[in-house]
Amino acid sequence: YEVRVKEELDKVVELIDYRRQQSELRVELEIRERVQAAYTIASHNYRLYKDERSVEEIREMIVELLRPMRWNNGRGYYFSGRVEEAEIELFADEPFFEGKEGWQFKAIVGTDVVGDIITMISEKEAGLYRYVLKKPAFPGKTFPKIAFVKYFPPLDWFIGAGIYSADLEETLKQEVLTRIQNIQFGKDGEVFCFRLDGTILTNQNERLVGRSITTLVGAEGEKYGRELFEASTTGAGTGYVNFSVQEKEEDRRRQKLCYVEVYPDWGWGLGAAMYMDAMEQSIANETKTYR
Predict the structure, then answer these.
(1) Which long-range contacts (CB under 8 A, 24 or more apart) does 106-113 make?
(2) Residues 222, 246 contacting (CB under 8 angstroms)
(3) Helix axis angle, 102-109 to 113-124, nearest 10°
(4) Of 20, 121, 149, 200, which sits with the fewest C-beta atoms within 10 Å of its C-beta?
(5) What span, in angstroms and rounded, lies between the C-alpha atoms of 66 and 69?
(6) How confident is the model over 161-211, as pLDDT tens digits?
(7) In terms of Cα–Cα distance, which of 35, 59, 29 is closest to 45?
(8) β-strands 238-247, 252-263: how paired?
(9) What angle do CA 42, 43, 46 make, to 5 degrees?
(10) What is the pLDDT of residues 50-62, one digit of tens each?
(11) What pairing do the DSSP bridges indicate for beta strands 143-152 and 200-202?
């Protein structure tokens, strides 16, 4: 029983890791394509107006074209800056940074973001860049970000597309929870999930979602919810819990085994559970056949 429930939970952890990896690859590809689209817009407008307007005017025009553009449910946005002056010219998600030079940006966020970008594009003209943003309006908070940046020579510009890593994680978490809600194994095996504050996120019994796992009690008074919570939040963050369930229709009690394991990156407790009588019947059948 213990081997079986652990194997099923290992599959769930593998699923989450795989989905996270695929999500990152998908996002990287998307922001590359977004930057290429912005690059095309900048290139087209430069060709149209290079003989009629100054570089400054063309920059301003392209900035206002890119400013309202959003994607990924409004979370993705554009930014741009001057290379020689090391200055941010567009930061659509946080206009406060517009007009700031590299040293000013560094003083605010603690990282020489502009300098890193300029170094990167001077070496290879384009690239993926990850950093942590600090916003004056949210003291004490940090915002991990992922961006792709490309150099636009005619305007001596870098053009980038960025998105907040937390937004990606939140979207992915909802997708994973939906998947976990529908996972079953064997005849009546199930997978469930709860936050490490105890709040149940998924359960085959949807009435339990939103409740604290510590309130769950077995048919014989076993406080198995408290045991699951403690197993996932103390020691190795794993453990087995056995409890009984009252079957109303059949007027009998069945034994159930859970294996729980913490998923630290997301602050989740993951569990797999199955009734033990199904396997007991299988053992009986196999024993009869063997004899």
Answers:
(1) 108/134, 108/136, 109/133, 109/134, 110/134
(2) no
(3) 130
(4) 20
(5) 5
(6) 988 877 778 888 988 999 998 888 877 889 999 999 999 999 888 889 999
(7) 59
(8) antiparallel
(9) 85
(10) 999 999 999 999 9
(11) unpaired
Crossing angle (nearest 10°) for helices 165-181 and 2-49:
140
Can you list the alpha helix ranges (DSSP code H) found in 50-141?
Answer: 55-66, 102-109, 113-124
| C-alpha span between 156 and 56 (Å, rounded) | 11
Share of the chain above pLDDT 90, in %: 42
In a 13 Å sphere around the CA of 183, the CA atoms on its Cβ side amount to 26
Give the E-state strand segments of 186-267 in sequence order: 189-195, 200-202, 238-247, 252-263
**To 10 degrees, the CA torsion angle through 154, 157, 159, 164?**
180
CB count, 10 Å around CB of 95?
11
- C-alpha 203/C-alpha 78 separation (Å) is 40
Considering the entire predicted model, what is its pTM? 0.71
Contact between residue 225 and residue 214 where contact means Cβ atoms under 8 Å apart: yes
What size, in residues, is the chain? 291
Q: What share of the chain is helix, strand, coil (3-state, %, to 5)?
A: 45, 30, 25
* CA 212 remoteness from chain centre: 23
Q: For the range 125-134, what are the long-range contacts, defined as Cβ-Cβ under 8 Å and sequence gap of 24 or more?
A: 125/150, 125/151, 126/35, 126/150, 126/151, 128/28, 129/160, 130/165, 133/94, 133/109, 134/108, 134/109, 134/110
